[in-house]
Design brief:
Elements lengths: L3 E6 L6 H13 L2 E7 L10 H13 L5 E6 L3 H7 L4 E6 L2 H17 L4 E6 L9 H9 L10 H13 L1
Parallel strand pairs: 1-2, 1-4, 2-3, 4-5
The structure holds 4'-phosphopantetheine.
4'-phosphopantetheine binds next to strand 1 and helix 4.
Amino acid sequence: MTRRAIYPGTFDPVTNGHVDIIERACQLFDEVIVAILINPGKNPMFTLDERVGILNEVLNSRFKQARVDTFEGLLVDYAAQQQAHAIVRGIRAISDYEYELQMALMNRRLNPSVETVFMMSSEDYSYVSSRLIKEVFNLGGSVSGLVPDLVIERMRAKSKIK
Ligand code: PNS
């Protein structure tokens, strides 16, 4: 049986914390689908297509078991459609836990056959979030080492267009 997991998120942009979780998930599961939520309301820095492109470039060369997809609607419905056994979520600090617990329990209620697996990223990235990356970058600070180099390249390209 292929053990398949979904790693869902917004990934605007993908951080080294996300990549670290994907790497760990690839050691536990045969297939990891990195699933980007289609959420037009969120006004992201990168379009959905740009995020798919960045994630593909970052992951394809490194992780054979990972693939990138997009989804809309309920995560548990998408997980069932993909015949996934687990949803992977990264937990950084205890502050993440409350929201993640709510989502995991709601998802369990919606579909008891999909298990949520919490994973801890390396402590090197425990304070890294997409939101802070964007804020620091936009204010001229260095985010080197916290996101893949490709993300820095793409953020620089975007800030030049503005
Ligand atoms: O990277 P994020 O923004 O923390 O990811 C949040 C995400 C995409 C996992 C969450 O918003 C989600 O699953 N949305 C899909 C809609 C859904 O299923 N909502 C009910 C969750 S209990």
